[in-house]
Amino acid sequence: MATYIHVPEGAPEVPKLDVTLDEHDYRAGALKLVKTLRPHWKPSEVKMKSFTDGITNKLIGCHVGGSMQDVVLVRVYGYKTELFVDRENEVKSFRVLQAHRCAPRLYCTFNNGLCYEFLQGVALEPEHIRSPAIFRHIARQMAKYHAIHAHNGWVPQSDLWLKMSKFFSLVPAHFDDPEKDQRLNSEVSSGACLRNEMIWLQQNLSKLGSPVVLCHNDLLCKNIIYNQQEDVSLPKSLHLLHRAIATDWRCSVCPARTPPGPVTNSRVSFCRPTLLSNFNQNFFFLHTISSRALGMQGNVKSNTL
């Protein structure tokens, strides 16, 4: 069985540039990248826009002129994110999806980040995803991901529990900062409690027989781009891994079920189970995604849902 991502033959190679960006003063480094990727651009005319929706990484859009028709996105890795994000797998993910026309073009990598194509459209909010017209588009794009064979003939195996265990090993038991430590103790369950919950989930969910497929694994609303002329794109797929198909369904349902209102603290919309929509709407959302993804014409096993 295999957990790795296999890049198909013929997938475009990705150049590696020896450039390091300072996330606090990124213009000089970004211009070095642009000089290679867009040599016809005049450095004095390059405009840069910082996108602020990311949690761990810094994202900068580089372009010239008044419009943003040709934009080079520069993603600078967040501090110590390499401890839980496999950067080699990240590049493989881009190459696999590019080969299947499911991702923007990856222009290059550099010492602490990568550059890729900007997709025109609107980043979605939870209220958008609740729309049947839009989540049907999302279901269709998810189905494309799940149909990709990136395991080179091996039987794909989920590494969900291994990754979760690794993440738990990185969680600090306390912080030196009193305010952070107080929040950790008051808002987060203990490590032992979380590990016990993970073991319980593993024991119960592993019995369901959910098919293991290539999953996006990061379907937050802001990672879904909607373009009325060109459908829906799922551009941010840096965590592409083999997982049970229901994992991606859960990722897409949670933001769709998040109630409207301001997002606090980490700027991320999380699911609040006590405020879920009615059962019929929730089931219709899952039924649409599962029917598209599995091609089962609505014949979905109840234990998978």
Structure description:
With about 300 residues, the protein is of the alpha+beta class. Helix content is about 35%, strand content about 15%. The chain has helices at about 25-35, 85-100, 125-130, 130-145, 160-170, 180-185, 190-205, 245-255, 280-295; strands at about 15, 45-50, 60-65, 70-75, 105-110, 115, 120-125, 210-215, 225, 230-235, 240-245. It has a 6-stranded mixed sheet with strand order 1-5-6-4-3-2, with helices on both faces. The chain has a 3-stranded antiparallel sheet with strand order 7-9-10. The protein has a two-stranded antiparallel ribbon with strand order 8-11. α5 (about 160-170) runs antiparallel to α7 (about 190-205).
Care to give the gist of this entry?
The chain is α+β, with helices and mostly antiparallel strands and 305 residues long. It has helices at 27-37, 87-99, 126-129, 132-146, 160-170, 178-187, 191-205, 245-257, 279-294, and strands at 16-17, 46-51, 58-64, 72-76, 106-110, 113-117, 122-123, 212-215, 225-227, 231-233, 241-244.
List keywords for this structure.
alpha+beta; globular; 305 residues; 9 helices; six-stranded mixed β-sheet; disordered C terminus; single chain
What composes the largest sheet? 6 strands, mixed
Please tally the helical runs, counting DSSP H or I stretches of 4 or more residues: 9
* Terminal-residue CA separation: 25 Å
Count of β-strands:
11
Radius of gyration: 20 Å
Helix percentage range: 25-40%
Which regions are unreliable across 5 or more consecutive residues at pLDDT < 50? 257-276, 296-305
Mean pLDDT: 77
As a percent range, the share of strand residues is: 15-25%
Q: Encode the helix/strand succession as letters.
A: EHEEEHEEEHHHHHEEEEHH
| Structural class computed from helices and strand pairing | alpha+beta
Strand neighbour order, sheet with most strands: 1-5-6-4-3-2
Broad shape: globular
